[in-house]
């Protein structure tokens, strides 16, 4: 484990380095997100959270000898019994209204969270225990998958790890999109895709809460540290900075956005440059 960093800048450096590594550590990235929201979370707290995942993984196999094979259903049931049953990890509607539901260290403490964070707990415990596990980013609801596609078993950590039938999955997708399930929706989610979705959830939580514009800002800034972020994030960061009175940095960010889109969208770039001029004028 890294020694305690001196401040937020070092946490962000570690986040960017991990996101750009060949095999990003999903749990570590999620815990580094937590350092933005919780200034009391330090290296000791991060290490404690990771050790808890290790201890839970040690409990995932005893009594389930079949889980030593690649039997996806046996793994799904074992994790549901341990995490959803004995440990009480699950979700409830009110969790969507809490920022803590998107912070891994708080989810481990409260044993409550959004579907995607509970799925991270399931994945990290199951992976440590040797299970063939991965995340599945269904529209509007994140679940976990076990086994190859032709034997795939899906479980819903938000519902305590309930194993899903094909009809269950179709209903989840229909409720979110009004459209039928498409096979590509069942593909494993990349760790960085998961991190990006968590940050989007945080931004969605903060957006209707102007008093938490600082949360929106750091969520965007972390998103910009992920590989190949969309240029639009620079525009959104600029808007937040200007709203918060940081006109000069906001103007610079508008210029950055304009440069990024100038070739493909010259009119959009010109508009951003005009906004940058107006932001600088507010300094007078």
Comma- or semicolon-separated keywords:
single chain, 284 residues, alpha+beta, 12 helices, 4 strands, 7% strand, disordered N terminus
Short description:
This protein has 284 residues and is an alpha+beta fold.
Describe the 3D structure.
With 284 residues, the chain is α+β, with helices and mostly antiparallel strands. It has helices spanning 8-19, 26-37, 43-58, 72-86, 104-110, 115-129, 166-177, 191-206, 213-223, 232-243, 247-261, 266-281, and strands at residues 133-138, 141-146, 153-156, 162-164. Strands 1-2-3-4 form a four-stranded antiparallel β-sheet, with helices on both faces. Strand 3 and strand 4 (162-164) form a beta hairpin. Residues 1-5 have low confidence and may be disordered.
> Helix/strand/pairing class, anyone?
alpha+beta
Q: How far is the N terminus from the C terminus? A: 48 Å
Number of helical segments with 4 or more residues: 12
Percent in helix = 55-70%
| Major sheet summary line | 4 strands, antiparallel
Strand order of the largest sheet: 1-2-3-4
Q: Unreliable stretches, pLDDT < 50, 5 or more residues?
A: 1-5
- SSE run: HHHHHHEEEEHHHHHH
- Total number of strands: 4
Apparent shape:
globular
Question: Mind telling me the C-alpha Rg?
Answer: 21 Å
């Amino acid at each position: 484990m890294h020694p305690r960093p001196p401040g937020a800048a070092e946490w962000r450096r570690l986040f960017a380095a991990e996101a750009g590594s060949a095999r990003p550590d999903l749990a570590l990235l999620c815990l580094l997100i937590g350092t933005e929201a919780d200034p009391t979370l330090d290296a000791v707290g991060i290490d404690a959270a990771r050790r808890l995942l290790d201890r839970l993984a040690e409990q995932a196999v005893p009594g389930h000898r079949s889980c030593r094979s690649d039997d996806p259903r046996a793994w799904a049931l074992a994790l549901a019994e341990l995490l959803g049953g004995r440990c009480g990890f699950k979700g409830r509607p009110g969790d969507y209204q809490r920022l803590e539901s998107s912070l891994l260290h708080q989810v481990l403490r409260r044993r409550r969270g959004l579907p995607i964070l509970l799925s991270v707990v399931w994945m990290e415990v199951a992976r440590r225990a040797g299970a063939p596990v991965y995340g599945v980013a269904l529209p509007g609801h994140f679940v976990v998958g076990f086994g190859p596609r032709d034997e795939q078993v899906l479980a819903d950590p938000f519902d305590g790890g309930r194993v899903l039938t094909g009809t269950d999955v179709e209903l989840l997708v229909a409720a979110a999109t009004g459209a039928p399930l498409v096979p590509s929706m069942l593909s494993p989610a990349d760790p960085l895709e998961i991190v990006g979705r968590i940050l989007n959830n945080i931004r969605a939580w903060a957006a209707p809460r102007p008093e938490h514009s600082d949360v929106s800002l750091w969520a965007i800034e972390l998103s910009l540290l992920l590989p190949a972020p969309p240029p639009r994030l620079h525009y959104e960061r600029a808007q937040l900075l200007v709203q918060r009175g940081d006109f000069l940095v906001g103007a610079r960010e508008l210029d950055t956005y304009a440069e990024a889109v100038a070739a493909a969208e010259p009119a959009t770039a010109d508009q951003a440059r005009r906004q940058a001029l107006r932001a600088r004028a507010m300094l007078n």
